[in-house]
Write a structure and sequence with these properties.
There is one protein chain. Helix 1 runs antiparallel to helix 2. This protein has twelve helices and no strands. The protein is mainly α and about 230 residues long. The longest helix has 17 residues. The radius of gyration is 20 Å and the shape is elongated.
Length: about 230
């Protein structure tokens, strides 16, 4: 499986705290595309230890917005925010370790960081941790753990995880083989626009009896209701 290569979006809000005015001034500059000014405002706050500013500064360096792209600098700022339990920074730092950008590649460190963000509820991290367990990268291969993390992300409406959970059900990996439930999860992910899930759904439906198809459709409808299919 391929993990999601996602950069968690920049944060443009902040609870009342010291430096809020500077933070929001930086946010306004970012929105209008003045990344250099955003950098100037957030850098001062980041040096003072504000986690949101550290995270946003990391994103600017990561994407090369208002500054020359520098993954090593991004990693340093993500690290400082991650140490303050910032889930987005933990995830983005994990992405750098998984890819070997700005740091020495380490799937072990990536897995540890994904886990911290996953436990905080970040669906992208839950999915990527599931992929590492499925592939045995940075952790001992464990399809049951992969299924656990895919399910947590799937229940947040994360289509990639919904598809992968369906695959595990279809193959009986880490879960009892259950093509009806696999069909249901493929249906949910396909409803969110996931092309791979739509393909998998068409493949597995050929293996189901009419009664099983009807059961899978009912189950898929329940999943859509329970796990909130909004815009993909």
């Amino acid at each position: 499986m391929t993990r999601a290569r996602v950069l968690v979006a920049i944060v443009l809000w902040l609870a009342a705290t010291v430096g809020r005015a500077d933070f929001t001034t930086g946010a306004a500059a970012f929105v209008r595309g003045d990344y250099a000014l955003a950098l100037a405002h957030w850098q001062a706050l980041a040096v003072q230890g504000q986690a949101e500013a550290q995270f946003n500064l990391g994103v600017l360096y990561d994407q090369g917005l208002g500054v020359a792209q520098d993954h090593a600098q991004a990693a340093r700022w993500y690290q400082r925010a991650a140490e303050q339990q910032h889930a987005g920074a933990q995830f983005n730092l994990a992405e750098l370790y998984a890819s070997g950008l700005g740091v020495v590649q380490s799937h072990v460190i990536a897995a540890s960081l994904y886990r911290r963000a996953a436990l905080a509820g970040l669906a992208e991290a839950q999915f990527n941790l599931g992929v590492l367990y499925e592939d045995g990268q940075g952790v001992v291969q464990d399809f049951g753990e992969a299924a656990h993390w895919y399910r947590r992300a799937a229940e947040q409406g994360y289509a990639l995880a919904q598809n992968n959970l369906g695959v595990l059900y279809a193959n009986g990996q880490g879960l009892p083989m259950d093509r009806v439930t696999a069909f249901a999860w493929y249906s949910v992910a396909a409803a969110r626009g996931n092309a791979k899930a739509a393909h998998n759904r068409e493949q597995i439906i050929r293996l189901l009896s009419p009664a099983q198809q009807a059961q899978g459709q009912r189950l898929g409808t329940e999943f859509i209701r329970d796990y909130g299919i909004s815009a993909p």
